[in-house]
Automatic annotation (TrEMBL):
Residues 78-104 are annotated as: Disordered. It comes from Plesiocystis pacifica SIR-1. NCBIfam families: sigma70-ECF. This is Uncharacterized protein. InterPro entries: RNA_pol_sigma-70-like, RNA_pol_sigma-70_dom, RNA_pol_sigma70_r2, RNA_pol_sigma70_r4_t2, RNA_pol_sigma_r2, RNA_pol_sigma_r3/r4-like, WH-like_DNA-bd_sf. The keyword Protein transport does not apply. Residues 78-87 have a biased composition (Basic and acidic residues).
Amino acid sequence: MIAAFLSGDRKAGDALARRYYPVLHKYFRERVHHDEVEELTQSTLMHTVARSERFRHASSFRSYVYAVARRVVAERHRQSMRNRELPRSGVDAQSLDTSPSERVARAERRQALDAAVAELRSPFRAVVTLHLAGHDNREIAGRLGLNDNTVRSRLSRGLASLRRALGSEQRRRVDPL
């Protein structure tokens, strides 16, 4: 099916889009505000089609789709940093028990974390992003097609890079806030 898609078969492309739509939708639900999930899912599918000549047959097509999705979400994070938008999150029980200044501080920490994650090199960013979304090392290894030792190493190095990037006030803990 992938070969047919790459040679221009529209039906194969539609079948691949149907196959990867739910996968991408879940990926973005774990990373961005729910209002952006649909847009980023469609954007990733369009980028996958538009840039299909970049697909390297040495890797799986699934890895290629995830690489496109990572670039799309990283670009969205960079845009939000440029626009200095606060993260769009709903009201939760924790925010009801905190002062407005604490909520602003938490939003700023989250924004700084998102920006720092977006700046990580791709191999580290993928592992750290899945870790921050709550996946354990075994799940991360399965999703990315890596062995457990590689995941542990990339996670350790990626989190160390985040701590350095975030500075002393957040060195104690890097978490999804």
